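Chain A, query sequence.
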Amino acid sequence: MREVTRTVYLFDELSDKAKETARDWFREGVGTDDWYEAIYEDAAKIGEILGIKFKQRPVQTVGGTTRYEPAILFTGFSSQGDGACFEGSYSYAKGCAVALKAYAPQDEKLAQIAADLVALQKANGYKLTATVKHSGHYYHSGSTDIEVCKGDDYAPADLEQELKDILRRFMDWIYRLLESEYEYLISEESVDENIRCNEYEFEEDGRRTRF
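Chain A, predicted structure.
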């Protein structure tokens, strides 16, 4: 038997070059967990205010149980075709513009989406409904089939397109929120904070210590 002594380093004890190696290691793990859950919850709440009900999809947990989350689909964040979409349904939600202003008073894009939905519904007797399904191989807002009805009949093509455009703007809003959160998580500030809080240990060159 022999005893081996190794020297390990906390993040702030590393050289600048080694810190970059440590940051790269940490960033590789970002995106492998459910970092987007809070965004999904926020989007579901706002969708509810707007009259959008997300389909729920089952997700298997590590422990073998099943949980459900909103059917929001996305890829990102640097390739052609990246984006977000959702599956679900839409119908008029009375008072949505006022409720949204109370929930997200600083978000002008959401306020405009709500205003456009109200105006379109008012002009059509508040009878517009829609169902949204994913289609194709991508997950951007255009990769959706949206069926629009006015009462018991299908909506005219121009009216259908107008509602489609508004709903897809909400999908694009969700994508921008996901992108912003991801960029923060991989930022130097966030990465350094997480490494320090978890007291990870490293080799001198910044590689994660393995025992």
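The chain has six helices and nine strands. The two ends are 17 Å apart (CA to CA).
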